[in-house]
Amino acid sequence: MQTAWFSKPVVVSVGVTGSIRHLSNTQQAIELLTTHWRDTGSQKHQSALRACRRATSGDVAADVARQAFVEAAREAHILLE
């Protein structure tokens, strides 16, 4: 498993206090998607998790995973644009 780096960090606000996090790679995105996500059952969440895992194995480009993560974060209302 490899760390796939995003071309640009994704900035999200998480937790009760709204802590701001800058995610730069698929490992950070997977950690957030699996441990700190509010709506884990949505299709966009599942697509983002799958894309990030595929990027860590080299099956898809990191920025494909980044875009899937951005869409899931936007749906969850945690993306800071």
UniProtKB/TrEMBL annotation:
Pfam families for the chain: DUF982
Full protein name: DUF982 domain-containing protein
Organism annotation: Mesorhizobium qingshengii
